[in-house]
Please model this.
Amino acid sequence: MLQIPKKLETRRSHKVIQFFLMRSESWSKENRAFSIYWSTSHMITTAQVMRLLATMRGLDPDICAIAGAMHDVATMETGRAVDHAARSIDFIKPLLHEYNEANEKYKITDDEIALLSKIIPQHSNKNEFTDNPYVEILKDADALDRYLQGVEAKEAEMPRLLRVLFDLGIDAEFGLRYNYI
Ligand SMILES: [Fe+2]
Model:
């Protein structure tokens, strides 16, 4: 029997991404640690990496994608990156309540908001490993997406990056399977 659904459930994560893309029009362009282009690109691609890893790990791809989309919410909203993981707690609940009011049919539940409020503030500690699969997947997806976006990996996140690349069939022992033209 075919175990893979023909269609993934992704509607709410797309709605959340659209909510932040609309908000990005009012974000100040001045004094940002990262450009709005970078922030919105990383938001969308981390969500997609989360969907991929979630399907591999048997986690809910839609709520994982929402975590990926929102993980840098403090940086996105304020332009400041310092302590952005810890500061995300000021934004997750109020912004998701605002999102819920505008998206009656695609609400994020209180339990899901609690999950996001637990895992997003922990995502910067890439060298800490936990037994919570949702905490781990967000750290993994952030490290992998930054790498795929061309950001140099920090030494402290290399064990995590190598682990997630290995999970994807990329073995550090053999190197990356491509050649520059
Ligand atoms: Fe990130």
Summary: The mean pLDDT is 95. The longest helix spans residues 36-57.
